[in-house]
Design goal:
This protein has about 300 residues and is mainly alpha-helical. It is built from 14 helices and 3 strands.
Length: about 300
């Protein structure tokens, strides 16, 4: 198959057909639809650069070419470090598949070092006043529910769009409830629903597809940005409200592990990125320990 790919490199149609078949097979190995969509988007970016800019076969490159693309993403395209890291994960999966299937005799990503993501919280984190302002803007029941699911429940954008009424369970007294969501990696997880979110669910009509919010993350992104403009605050995307969920929970005194569970982060280091108090010197443990010692 390697020889076939090399022989077809000069015939665009044959190469495209071969790549399409390989791409389809690779995507089928990704069980989670959200991961599949994210990696498909990353693969399209890789194909565009490799085919149009570097003029190389997107299925047969060396480590140097991959390093060049990652550098281009960071320095020319100005992609965020997290985006560059995600694109590298996409290529690791893609070239790992090609190696496992015998298409390539080696994996060019095997020796590529991972990109570091800053441990500091994102600079564009909403404060509570901004969240209240956006929630106070007149909007449709669908949009209002979406904002509450992002901010109060910490859902991801895709999870917000796919919430179904059948996934909602009310507790016996009806004041709170829980929501079943399919998290990253296909894991089934439970999210608490306060009364205000249950009220918003009751007010939102169920769509033909069974979803309460529906749409996709691009619709949600447009909707959130429109509401931010109406509230006259910094325009941000949906994930900023999930950022607020984590940051506000930590600042309210919940433990790191409680917030990690609530945000459904696999690694506590991810949650810690949003701990703004982490970098406040006045909250350093030395000050607390000093109060435990007698005068010296």
């Amino acid at each position: 198959m390697t020889a076939t790919l090399a022989a077809s490199a000069s015939t665009g149609v044959a190469l495209d057909h071969q790549l399409a078949r390989l791409r389809a097979g690779w995507l089928l190995t990704l069980a989670n639809p959200r991961t599949r969509g994210t990696y498909a988007e990353g693969w399209a970016a890789w194909y565009s650069w490799a085919h149009d800019t570097a003029e190389v076969d997107p299925a047969r490159v060396d480590r140097t070419t991959i390093e060049a693309w990652l550098t281009w993403l960071a320095d020319v395209h100005r992609s965020a470090p997290a985006t560059v890291a995600l694109r590298l994960s996409t290529l690791r999966s893609w070239f790992g598949y090609l190696y496992d299937e015998g298409v390539n005799t080696s994996d060019p990503t095997a020796r590529v070092k991972g990109r570091k993501v800053s441990a500091r919280p994102p600079s564009r984190v909403l404060d509570t006043d901004a969240v209240v302002a956006v929630l106070g803007v007149h909007s449709t029941p669908r949009a209002h529910l979406a904002l509450l699911l992002l901010a109060l429940c910490g859902l991801r954008a895709t999870e917000t769009c796919t919430v179904r009424r059948a996934d909602v369970v009310r507790h016996r007294r009806g004041h709170t409830g829980e929501l079943t969501v399919a998290g990253k990696g296909g894991t089934i997880e439970l999210v608490g629903l306060p009364a205000v979110v249950l009220d918003a669910i009751d007010a939102a009509p169920v769509r033909d597809d069974g979803c309460l919010v529906g749409g996709d993350r691009w619709w949600l992104d447009r909707t959130v940005r429109i509401l931010c403009r109406r509230a006259d605050i910094t325009v941000v995307g949906p994930h900023a409200f999930r950022h607020w969920f984590v940051t506000a929970s930590l600042e309210a005194g919940l433990s790191l592990h409680q917030v990690q569970d609530g945000a459904r982060h696999a690694n506590p280091a991810t949650t810690q990125r949003y701990n703004r108090a982490r970098h406040q010197v006045e909250r350093h443990p030395s000050h607390t320990l000093a109060t435990l010692l007698p005068a010296v």
